[in-house]
Backbone:
């Protein structure tokens, strides 16, 4: 199964390079999403590996399933997006090839059992997704793409320094496989590990979107086409997070857990602070969603750092954020297509013009801010409960304060777009709906999954989250 996940995008990319056809591009991308979903479910039911370098374990299977589910939904939405796109076949082919290789790179990062190989695939995600950010070929998208390449390349270089430092601390081991590092963690030099972890955290944290190394994320997510934004937020951030979690586990098995917790906690709260400051005065609704991603990466980091029930909360939050934010970004694509703007003040009468998109927009907001019965309510409740039980009252107060400010800032923007009506003498004439089921179905299914999970968590999802929380 694992070789298919790598062979399909490579072979089809070569074919598409020579046969430039938009219908074929759409079919190939959708075919890969179906194959990816089938293979991922199969690997969940029957965990296996391919050579020593690619394996499924109790931690990465959650990330693989989320990648497959989000990609499948995005590929359905991409059918409508591609039909509405005015790009010539040559440019659309480049878009599809980069998309295929982008998914392939994330898959490789998730399945990697060696930290060096993981680093290679994370770097590959930068190279394959940068052209996707520049898809609209505007000045702002060009700036966002170069900022993304530049900042993430610096970050990945810092992560490479961290890998070198880990290698220096494991001279007697001479292996960078995660399993070998965990099994021989007591033989590793604590000095080099303590020196390496900040480089790893900042390096992969750059890709994850943790503040203060988050500068690329608002521009890239807001300028990329909506299907790409959904993959960036719903899948790519998870891949970088997986690398941090694996090294954090090494800190735990090496007896340096307090050191690792402190650094994660600081970056987590810094991310929430930055999000709160920007969201309360945001003007661009796609940038608002980007800052929400930064906030949620911070929440996950905090949950992991507090331990206990926070670990289950972190994995539940990862699950919920991936689906909710993918749905949010896809819905933003419908709004952009209809109103031709990303400015909150220029979107009027969303409910009057497109009731389906309007209600999906509000439901996505309720999902991402953690209103009951959606699962983000449960994850935040578990985090708050763990903070209270451990007596971290100052941390608890800050956490609730940032959550409240961010929710208030987002609610103003969301409901302004939902309810507002433009004055008659400037009345906006949005484009007539040319959406079919593909423009609404993925978001509705994602929201339905979250609703069911929040009300009565299915056994398979519960097992998936429980397994991953015991990393």
Residues:
């Amino acid at each position: 199964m694992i070789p298919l996940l790598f062979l399909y995008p490579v072979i089809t990319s070569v074919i598409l390079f020579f046969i430039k056809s938009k219908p074929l591009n759409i079919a190939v991308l959708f075919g890969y999403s179906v194959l990816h979903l089938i293979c991922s479910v199969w690997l969940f039911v029957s965990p296996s590996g391919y050579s020593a370098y690619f394996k499924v374990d109790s931690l990465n299977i959650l990330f693989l399933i989320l990648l497959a589910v989000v990609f499948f939904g995005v590929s359905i939405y991409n059918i409508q997006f591609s039909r509405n796109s005015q790009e010539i076949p040559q440019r659309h082919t480049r878009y599809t090839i980069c998309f295929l290789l982008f998914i392939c790179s994330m898959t490789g990062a998730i399945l990697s059992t060696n930290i060096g190989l993981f680093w290679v695939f994370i770097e590959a995600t930068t190279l394959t997704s940068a052209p996707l950010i520049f898809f609209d070929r505007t000045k702002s998208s060009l700036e966002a793409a170069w900022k993304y390449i530049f900042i993430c390349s610096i970050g990945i270089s810092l992560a490479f320094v961290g890998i070198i430092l880990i290698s220096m601390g494991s001279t007697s081991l001479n292996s960078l496989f995660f399993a070998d590092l965990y099994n021989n963690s007591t033989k590793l030099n604590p000095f080099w590990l303590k020196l390496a972890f900040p480089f790893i955290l900042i390096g992969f944290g750059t890709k994850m979107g943790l503040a203060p190394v988050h500068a690329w994320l608002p521009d890239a997510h807001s300028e990329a086409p909506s299907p790409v934004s959904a993959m960036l937020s719903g899948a790519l951030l998870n891949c970088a997070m997986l690398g941090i979690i694996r090294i954090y586990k090494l800190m735990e098995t090496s007896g340096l857990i307090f050191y690792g917790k402190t650094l994660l906690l600081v970056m987590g709260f810094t991310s929430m602070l930055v999000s709160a400051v920007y969201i309360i005065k945001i003007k661009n609704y796609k940038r608002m969603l980007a800052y929400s991603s930064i906030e949620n990466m911070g929440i996950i980091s905090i949950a992991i750092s507090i331990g206990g029930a926070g670990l289950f909360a972190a994995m539940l939050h990862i699950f919920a954020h991936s689906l909710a934010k993918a749905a949010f970004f896809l819905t933003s694509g419908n709004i952009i297509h209809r109103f031709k703007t990303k400015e909150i003040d220029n979107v009027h009468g969303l409910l009057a013009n497109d009731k389906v998109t309007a209600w999906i927009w509000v439901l996505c907001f309720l999902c991402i801010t953690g209103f009951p019965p959606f699962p983000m309510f449960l994850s935040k409740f578990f985090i708050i409960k763990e903070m209270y039980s451990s007596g971290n009252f100052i941390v608890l107060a800050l956490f609730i304060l940032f959550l409240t400010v961010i929710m208030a800032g987002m609610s103003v923007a969301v409901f302004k777009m939902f309810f507002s009506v433009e004055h008659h003498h400037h009345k906006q004439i949005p484009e007539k709906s040319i959406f079919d089921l593909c423009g609404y179905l993925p978001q509705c299914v994602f929201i339905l999954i979250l609703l069911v999970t929040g009300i009565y968590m299915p056994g398979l999802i519960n097992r998936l989250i429980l397994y991953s929380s015991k990393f």
